[in-house]
């Protein structure tokens, strides 16, 4: 089974380098283990002003993993994977990576050294199986003694254990090129969004460089029915789109309150 979620392409932002995420594990799809790594990546990507373009969840299948990597990996995206790098029979992520890049699996000396240091006299063939990596994969050790950061170019292969995964994600995000922050303007409506769907679509068409979203909520809990968000890298573009929305919606009495463009709060909780 493969699950994909893809963000629509917004004209004028197609040249940005984005992040794709691949979550691997039968235990995730069956919910034998609750999945929390994806949310952490999304938080940290938002904190660094990176857009996540596409997310996939696949089971422990070499074919499914390699197919997903071929789909998600490109020169235009960073790819972060989670899970399937352990010593048991169902840990086949490295095989999937190798298949996706048409590379052989070879014993990595640095990874074997790390495993020997961690497992010591308890090192077995199963342990050393984790040192079989796709040819050319880089292994970056860290002072915390947790699982190394492993990558092929800008494809990062991370463990599924949340503590180790999060530490590696922090390192990745700190090393990626800095992005221009997003400017965000807001508007709120007490109307059902079906009333203004056509007008909102026209505004989006008029301002393709701005990401416009409409998010309905429970009015009795939030105090409004719909939150409208306008996001973009250039303040002037967001300002113009926001003013256009206020003008159009104001004529119909669809706006209850609004907020002009401000730099997005990029602090990850």
Protein architecture, described:
The longest helix is centred in the C-terminal third of the chain and has 16 residues. The chain folds into 2 domains: 174 residues, MoaB/Mog-like domain (Molybdenum Cofactor Biosythetic Enzyme, Chain A), CATH 3.40.980; 81 residues, 2-Layer Sandwich (Alpha-Beta Plaits). Helix content is 35%, strand content 26%. It is elongated. Strand 7 and strand 8 form a beta hairpin. The chain has 10 helices and 13 strands. It is an alpha+beta fold. The strands form 3 sheets. A 7-stranded mixed sheet has the order 1-3-2-4-9-8-7, sandwiched between helices. A 4-stranded antiparallel sheet has the order 11-12-10-13, with helices on one face. A two-stranded antiparallel sheet has the order 5-6.
